[in-house]
Amino acid sequence: MRMWASGSSRHPGWPAKLGPLRTSAGTVTLRPVRLRDARVWSSLRIKNQNTLMPWEPTGSDYWAERHHSSSWPALHAVLRSEAKSGSMLPMVIEVNGDYAGQLTVGNIQRGALRNGWIGYWLDEDLFNRGVATAAVALGVDHCFGSVGLHRLEATVQPSNLPSKAVLTKLGFREEGLLRRYMDVNHAWRDHLLFALTAEEVVGSAVETLVRSGRASY
Predict the structure, then answer these.
(1) Cβ count within 10 A of residue 217
(2) Could you tell me if 135 and 103 are in contact, meaning their C-beta atoms sit under 8 angstroms apart?
(3) In what order do the strands lie in the sheet with 187-197?
(4) pLDDT tens across 106-123, in order?
């Protein structure tokens, strides 16, 4: 596996291109968000409205308005600013070089904590083909490597079985139930808290997938 990373010591691990990792759907890589992603971001978000809305925070506008391509420049500016400040890693998931979704590591904290949360969304055409698991594995290894984090957290609604499966395949532990944790799809939803620390990863998350036969270099 190749991994590229550049940037100052203040913001380790950004920007970076991660991968490749091969799955049944194709070759998975991660790269930073770009301003020119507007059209494909909008197209995929609107196309996947029915599969994304049940799991994402409630928005103030209609889905199509919120995800029109004209909304991307402002969102991109925020994401880039957070990345440059060292508090976020906003990445695009690519399959065979095509935009397939996003993976984000957010609320990055340094000092004695050195933690953050990880989340993703993916085009429904690529569900159940190993792409999400491969992308999260690449993200985990980057966070515990170049980024220098010690702990990653993820929150998942109890009924979101596919996302729970992605996390457990990579060794994330369920730590508890967060009651009425987030306003999702116009209701306060319970979420399960999953976590993983660097010491719990044997070798690397990518190696875990490869050993299990779920991906290859």
Answers:
(1) 11
(2) yes
(3) 3-5, 16-23, 26-32, 89-95, 98-109, 115-122, 151-156, 187-197, 173-184
(4) 999 999 999 999 999 999
Cross-strand pairs, 27: 22
**Per residue in 197-209, pLDDT tens?**
999 999 999 999 9
DSSP string, 88-111: -EEEEEEETTEEEEEEEEEEEE-T
Cα three-residue angle 11-115-122, rounded to 5 degrees: 85
Q: Where does the chain show beta strands of DSSP type E?
A: 3-5, 16-23, 26-32, 89-95, 98-109, 115-122, 151-156, 173-184, 187-197
Dihedral in degrees, nearest 10, Cα atoms 207, 27, 126, 50: 100
Q: Which amino acid is at 145?
A: G
Distances (CA, A) of 52 to 32, 101, 177, 188: 21, 11, 22, 16
CB-CB contact of 113 with 62 (8 Å)? no
Residue 37, token pair as written in the block: 């992603």
pTM to 2 decimal places? 0.94
The residue assigned the tokens 């809305």 is: 53
